[in-house]
């Protein structure tokens, strides 16, 4: 018995209408990226494991898909590491390559490798798939696309301001009615760790705080306790979980809270600059909010961090990003500041689907379908098809003279805008009959008139 075909969990096939919708999202994002001066690049779907491992924190490393060595390389597996229970070393001996977890670390590798060919500040965008061994659920897939834009070679906060504008412009163009851009600064989080006397626990604190919206206040406190953060520090941090309201008042509160931390005060100063310049430019639809609990658990962020959420939709963040002042330092290129953002195209797709925001004509990719009445009519139609296609008009002819009902159903299924009818009368009078599928109205005109109208 033949095996029933299936695909791995967390992956998806895409039907034509879905691809059209996805391209609508990508094209919208790409258009805005280009408007702000970003250039496209691409990187391989897999990297050396050494490029990726250790860059995302302990939790991120667990979600990296490793690629098993093949051929003679399998013989090089470190069995002594397995016997000693050193599973990370054993895994590394089995796998020299891994699927990329995101586009940011490969971009850092790209910049270092091609530094002599780039002009700095270098602004790039990249739209490609990434893979994560995460538990599949709504809005979370093991294979998904990211749409990234990054700037490296400048520490100017004007780029943070630009990225806020890009979030706002893209999601406004996609007609998302209500969304919030949340912003924080990792310097503020470092300041919190400093004033609570837990500098060495900064990673544990940020990872736990980042889960506040998922596991709640008590869940965060439990995790902090398990990570041996002192009770005194937890008591100091706890009031921050419910800090909300007016941005200026929250920043003023944090200014006082971090009065003894220079790095924390620097983070507040940077946020105040970004808010001021954003207010000067204005936003179309976005709400910009300071969220002191926003941590984004990736270790490489050092300054501003962003997350964007579609309000009224039960889903996590649909965009994110932040500043990473020394990410390229991981590959030997010190002192190169960078900042970037990522649009979660798959989650945006789900939001647009749930809110019914896709344009109704997005799948109308076929302008003309020529009905097939027989060989003589086909010979009459083919030169017209050629002229239409040469002028960038989508057109095709039904491949056989099947029953009209079947041909018109095909036209409906393909969302054809018009059907073209060439029968005996049209052949005899050198005419053509065009039927608009949506309204059912049809018009017979001279062939020359049709060509002049549609082949410009």
Automatic annotation (TrEMBL):
> Record-annotated residues binding L-histidine?
102-104, 132, 146, 150, 296, 300-301
Q: What class of enzyme is it?
A: ligase
Superkingdom field: Bacteria
Q: What compartments host this protein?
A: Cytoplasm
Task: Answer whether the UniProt record assigns the keyword Cytoplasm to this protein.
Answer: yes
Which keywords describe this protein according to UniProt?
A: Aminoacyl-tRNA synthetase, ATP-binding, Cytoplasm, Ligase, Nucleotide-binding, Protein biosynthesis
Q: Which residues form the Aminoacyl-transfer RNA synthetases class-II family profile domain?
A: 1-383
Quote the catalytic activity from the record: tRNA(His) + L-histidine + ATP = L-histidyl-tRNA(His) + AMP + diphosphate + H(+)
What EC number(s) are associated with this protein in UniProt? Answer: 6.1.1.21
Question: InterPro entries given for it?
Answer: aa-tRNA-synth_II (IPR006195), aa-tRNA-synth_II/BPL/LPL (IPR045864), Anticodon-bd (IPR004154), Anticodon-bd_dom_sf (IPR036621), His-tRNA-ligase (IPR015807), HisRS-like_core (IPR041715), HisRS/HisZ (IPR004516), HisRS_anticodon (IPR033656)
Q: Which Gene3D superfamilies match?
A: Anticodon-binding domain (3.40.50.800), Bira Bifunctional Protein, Domain 2 (3.30.930.10)
A GO molecular-function annotation: histidine-tRNA ligase activity
GO biological process, any: histidyl-tRNA aminoacylation
* GO cellular-component term (any): cytoplasm
What the entry lists under Pfam families is as follows: HGTP_anticodon, tRNA-synt_His
User: Does the record carry Protein biosynthesis as a key word?
Assistant: yes
Under the heading PANTHER family, the entry gives: HISTIDINE--TRNA LIGASE, HISTIDYL-TRNA SYNTHETASE
Q: How does it assemble?
A: Homodimer.
Family the entry assigns:
Belongs to the class-II aminoacyl-tRNA synthetase family.
Give the protein's recorded name: Histidine--tRNA ligase
């Amino acid at each position: 018995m033949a095996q029933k075909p299936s695909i791995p969990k967390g992956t998806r096939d895409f039907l034509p209408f879905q691809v059209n919708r996805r391209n609508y999202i990508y094209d919208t994002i790409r258009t805005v990226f280009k408007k702000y001066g970003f250039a496209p690049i691409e990187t391989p779907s897999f990297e050396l494991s050494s490029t990726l491992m250790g860059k995302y924190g302990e939790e991120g490393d667990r979600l990296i898909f490793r690629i098993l060595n093949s051929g003679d390389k399998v013989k090089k597996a470190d069995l002594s590491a397995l016997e000693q229970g050193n599973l990370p070393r054993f895994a590394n001996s089995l796998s020299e390559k891994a699927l990329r977890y995101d586009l940011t670390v490969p971009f850092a590798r790209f910049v270092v490798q091609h530094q002599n060919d780039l002009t700095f500040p270098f602004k790039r965008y990249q739209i490609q798939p990434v893979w994560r061994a995460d538990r599949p659920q709504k809005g979370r897939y093991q294979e998904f696309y990211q749409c990234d834009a990054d700037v490296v070679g400048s520490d100017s906060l004007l780029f943070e301001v630009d990225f806020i504008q890009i979030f706002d412009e893209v999601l406004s163009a996609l007609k998302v009615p209500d969304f919030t851009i949340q912003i924080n600064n990792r310097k503020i989080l470092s300041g919190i760790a400093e004033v609570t006397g837990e500098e060495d626990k900064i990673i544990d604190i940020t990872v736990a705080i980042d889960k506040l919206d998922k596991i709640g206040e008590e869940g965060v406190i439990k995790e902090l306790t398990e990570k041996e953060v002192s009770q005194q520090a937890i008591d100091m941090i706890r009031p921050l979980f419910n800090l909300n309201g007016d941005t200026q008042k929250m920043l003023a509160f944090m200014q006082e809270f971090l009065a003894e931390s220079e790095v924390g005060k620097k983070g507040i100063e940077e946020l105040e600059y970004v808010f001021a310049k954003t207010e000067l430019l204005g936003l179309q639809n976005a709400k910009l909010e300071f969220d002191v609990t926003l941590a984004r658990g990736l270790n490489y962020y050092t300054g501003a961090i962003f997350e964007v959420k579609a309000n009224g939709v039960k889903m996590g963040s649909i965009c994110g990003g932040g500043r990473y002042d020394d990410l390229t330092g991981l590959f030997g290129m010190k002192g190169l500041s960078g900042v970037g953002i990522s649009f979660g195209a798959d989650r945006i797709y789900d939001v647009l689907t749930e809110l019914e925001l896709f344009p109704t004509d997005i799948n109308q990719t076929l302008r003309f379908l020529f009905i097939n009445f027989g060989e003589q009519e086909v010979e009459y139609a083919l030169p017209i098809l050629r002229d239409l296609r040469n002028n960038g008009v989508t057109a095709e002819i039904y491949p056989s003279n099947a029953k009209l009902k079947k041909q018109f159903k095909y036209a409906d299924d393909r969302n054809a805008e018009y059907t073209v009818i060439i029968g005996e009368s049209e052949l005899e009078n050198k005419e053509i009959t065009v039927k608009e599928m949506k309204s059912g109205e049809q018009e017979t005109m001279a062939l020359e008139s049709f060509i002049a109208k549609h082949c410009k």
